[in-house]
Amino acid sequence: MTDFSTVLACAVHDMKNSLCLLLQSIETLGNEIGDSDHSVSDQLASIHYEASRLNTSLMHILSLYRADREQLPINIDQHYLEDIIDEVVATNQRYLDNKAISLNVNQQQELFWYFDNELICLLLNDILINAIRYSKERVQLSTYIQDGYLCIRLEDDGDGYPQNMLNTQHEQMQDFDISTGRTGLGLYFARMIATAHERNGKHGEILMENGGIYGGSVFTLKLP
């Protein structure tokens, strides 16, 4: 009998590869056009956002499939935060430029920590894309150590998280109402990545709130 979940995982993998090529094409086209046509730049920014969302969602599905089969790889190693942040920012620089969003990076120099590079980059990329999408002019990304945790904090000057999202940020995947149009997949995935990082009996966590330096949404990832 055909294992449908395995077929789905293979299809998702192929779709993700195609989306990566599409994103590269968007980047190339954006570089060729530059800032000469603001209307086209705005359209490219929207296409980039939607394609990135699809790519991230496909990664979520693959990771959940592997987790269900207890095959989600957690490869903990030492990494310099500056390298990680630079990679995530560079990936989204064209989107930042097209949206005319000012990104301030505030990080401690020579800061390193132990975590899964691929999963954390995926998580940070996801929340940065959303911050750019919903901010008005400014976003700040900060890294620091607090109470034995590495904290990566993203703040924007948008309208903030809806109250219902703040109320449900600790719910499990099966508790979300799909009929409302919000599956909670991204939030569930972020929490899954955070809690998979464990050290000396402490697990990672995510925190969502409104306020911060810009009065918008504030997302904090804490890793032990």
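Next protein, fold it too.
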Amino acid sequence: MGGMSTPHSTPQRQLRIDFVSDVSCPWCAVGLGALEQALARVAPEIQAELHFQPFELNPQMPREGQDSIEHLTEKYGISEEQVRANGENIRQRAATVGFDFSLDRRKRVWNTFDAHRLLHWAELEDVNKQRALKKSLFKAYFTDGLNPSDADLLIRLAGEAGLDTVRAREILASDLYAAETRERERLYTGAGIHSVPAIIIDNKHLISGGQPAEIFERALRQIAGAAPRQQETAQA
């Protein structure tokens, strides 16, 4: 080619990331923001396909939900002041990853099973649309204080993520994907996951908790540089 040299291309490593979480889990929203920051830092050498897997913090939560302060004081045996202090700590951490927590708007804790059913369907349709729906659900609940069990909200968010709203409505009006979602939940709890977020990379490396972006970045680089058959676990 007339003496021109071809630029050296850096080999890419493609990772699969299963992000086990609940849409009502504040540290899951923080963890996703930090993971996305880390993925931006390691791109384009390291690419990842995210799959969001279901986990319910409150599977027995009734349809009408529960006051959030009441719920947290009862569940964790802490005072209202401690609840508010913990919330402020999460709000500050969330701000570092560009996520806006509105503590005053999030008045209630809701059942999230229908949201997980819709996310399961979204994964089957397009993992990028599933990711968009997941992020919209976090924003709806934690920023806007909306009810993630409300069918009309779920249908609207599905449409905004590029999914078929007619199909979304059909799913929510039925028990479609209920068995599959519960099977996924049992799969991860059976594997020993009892708190979230749990980030599983290439089905063998586990990172637990809403870690800072630096922790995710280091783990991603270590895993991407590992020989394919190595079995070490990334430590967070």
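About the second fold: The chain has one domain: 22-48+57-224.
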